[in-house]
Design brief:
Number of helices: 6
Largest sheet: 7 strands, antiparallel
Distance between the termini: 20 Å
Radius of gyration: 17 Å
Shape: globular
Strand content: 25-35%
Structural class: alpha+beta
Helix content: 10-25%
Length: about 220
């Protein structure tokens, strides 16, 4: 996962790079609009149930916030054969969507190219709710990095924004710097924030405590 962080930082430095044509369908929300307004909208999850899958929650999010990456995710979830025909999976730079339902993880990327990245992870909370974390990035023209967290309430079948969680993981309270990469886990429950503003890089590991995240364990490659 950390190779995405390094490639994202490189791509962000390439000003004016052209973005490839994606499978855009209907209206599309700009990444900067998502960054400004995601915490102002509750998202309905039709038929969400008690423990919805990562696909169901991401699909609901993408309907509410149809960014460029969401168009491809929805295409993959709704018509995987058409998605496969559109993107050559034999090409290392081909756009790909990975769904790991068992671990509550979804990823969409083109292996570090100029297309947007999208990562999503589920945590089952001790109060019966589900925490959804999303990290999505437009790497170039311009670079926009958005970290989002939602609480899913099974009684209301809604995703409620939790700005406090996103702010906590990326604040400078524990020494994090502006140039960082937030790694949502595919396995396990810990979130690792890598700060690249210092040499060597510093890693902040935030451990899930059943509802949110504890103070980070701080380490480096020294």
């Amino acid at each position: 996962m950390r190779r995405f962080a390094l490639k994202m930082l490189i791509c962000a430095a390439v000003a004016g790079a052209a973005l490839p044509v994606m499978a855009q369908q209907g209206r599309s929300v700009a990444f900067d609009a998502l960054k400004r307004g995601w915490d102002q909208k509750t998202v309905a999850v039709p038929g969400g149930g008690v423990k919805p899958s990562v696909e169901k929650l991401v699909s609901a999010f993408c309907k509410a916030w149809p960014t460029r990456s969401c168009a491809d995710i929805q295409l993959y979830l709704n018509d995987p054969m058409r998605f496969k025909a559109l993107y050559s999976q034999n090409n290392e730079s081909a756009y790909a969507v990975t769904v790991d339902r068992g671990n509550g993880f979804l990823m969409a990327s083109d292996e570090g190219g100029d297309s947007p990245y999208f990562f999503a992870t589920l945590w089952r909370r001790s109060n019966g709710h589900t925490l959804l974390g999303i990290h999505t990035v437009q790497p170039v023209d311009p670079n926009v990095d958005v970290l989002l967290f939602y609480d899913y309430n099974p009684k209301t079948a809604q995703l409620v924004p939790e700005r406090a969680v996103a702010d906590y993981l990326t604040s400078q309270k524990y020494g994090q710097v502006e140039m960082n990469w937030v790694e949502l886990p595919r396995k396990g429950k810990d979130v690792v924030v890598t700060a690249y503003g210092k040499e060597p890089a510093v890693y902040y590991t935030f451990r899930f405590n059943g509802l949110g995240f504890d103070k980070p364990v701080i380490s480096s490659m020294e």
